[in-house]
Every structure is written in C-alpha cells, then in structure tokens.
C-alpha cells in the first residue's frame, strides 16, 4: 500500500528555549552565564493540541553566548489567545508547545499564502532543548553546614 502522506523533515536544531513563567522577573541577565541578554525578534513555531500549527513573530530576550531564547509566558499567552480568537477560536485555552523557530523570510512567505503544515515544518528549526530555571527570591538565607 502506497503512503500518500509527504515525509515531514525539519532543519537542524538550533537555539535553547526557556518560557519564563515569572511575571516579575525579566531575565535581563542570562540564567546560565549571567551575561546581559538582548532583545531580538524570533519567528516562533507553536503546536496547539490536537492538530494546529501557528507561527508568531515575537520579541524575546536572547543570550548570544548561550544561544538561549527567553519568552515571557504571560505576554506569549495573551498574544496567542488574541491570534486564536482571530483565526481559530475553538483552540483558545488548548494546550500548546513552542518547539522551534523559522527564518524571517520563510515566515513572511508563509504569511503571504496558504501553507500546509508539512511545508511549515520543513522550514522550522527545532530547539536543541527546552530549559526550565527556578529563581530563589532575594533575601537572607541561613548558612548550611556542608561538613555533615
């Protein structure tokens, strides 16, 4: 039996990604290397359950040393809800997963015409890894005895 589905291929992985759940922390310094982060625009690829792909052109924090993209979850979710309300209202509130980036030219081409999911996936660079960081609030902490 012949398989009529096109083979889905993606580009080589690049960038690490962190979805910042903290509303009061902007990560102006990288949580990995402590270097200053910059603001840069990325075309993020999002999968919304059960089967919806959306691309979003968004400003994010970026550490060029660690190749780490940091997106604020609250900002991202409000933009995603607005996009879903306009294009796919039945997907509002569904689970989502941000899984990669696209080059800006590929993103512009996809916006200009109807694009099939396998075409978008073919131009997507998946993330090398999705990271999580925990932040300890500032303040005094008792010394710990590491000898025993």
**Count of discrete structural domains:** 1
Question: In DSSP terms, counting alpha (H) and pi (I) runs of 4 or more, how many helices?
Answer: 3
Distance between the termini: 66 Å
Radius of gyration: 18 Å
Largest sheet: 7 strands, mixed
Inertia-based shape: globular
Mean pLDDT comes to: 87
Give the SSE order as H and E letters: EEEEHEHHEE
What portion of the residues fall into strands of 2 or more residues?
25-35%
Description:
The protein is an alpha/beta fold. The chain has one domain (16-131). 20% of the residues lie in helices and 31% in strands. The protein has 3 helices and 7 strands. The protein has helices at residues 73-87, 104-112, 117-122, and strands spanning 16-20, 38-48, 52-63, 68-72, 96-102, 124-126, 129-131. A 7-stranded mixed β-sheet has the order 6-5-2-3-4-1-7. The chain is globular, with a radius of gyration of 18 Å. The model has no long low-confidence stretch (mean pLDDT 87).
Which key features would you list for this structure?
alpha/beta, 31% strand, 3 helices, 20% helix, single chain, globular, 148 residues
Give a summary of the structure in a few sentences.
The chain is α/β, with parallel strands linked by helices.
What are the SSEs and their pairings?
Layout: E1 16-20, E2 38-48, E3 52-63, E4 68-72, H1 73-87, E5 96-102, H2 104-112, H3 117-122, E6 124-126, E7 129-131
């Amino acid at each position: 039996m012949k398989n009529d589905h096109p083979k889905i291929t993606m580009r080589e992985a690049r960038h690490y990604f962190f979805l910042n759940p903290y509303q009061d922390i902007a990560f102006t310094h990288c949580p990995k290397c402590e270097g200053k982060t910059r603001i840069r625009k990325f075309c993020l690829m999002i999968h919304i359950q059960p089967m919806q792909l959306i691309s979003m052109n968004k400003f994010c924090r970026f550490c060029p040393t660690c190749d780490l993209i940091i997106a604020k979850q609250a900002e991202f979710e409000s933009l995603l809800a607005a996009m879903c309300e306009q294009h796919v209202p039945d997907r509002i509130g569904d689970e989502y997963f941000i899984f990669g980036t696209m080059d800006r030219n590929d993103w512009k081409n996809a916006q200009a015409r109807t694009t099939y999911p396998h075409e978008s996936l073919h131009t997507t660079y998946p993330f090398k890894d999705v990271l999580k960081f925990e932040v300890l609030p500032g303040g005094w902490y008792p010394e710990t005895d590491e000898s025993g």
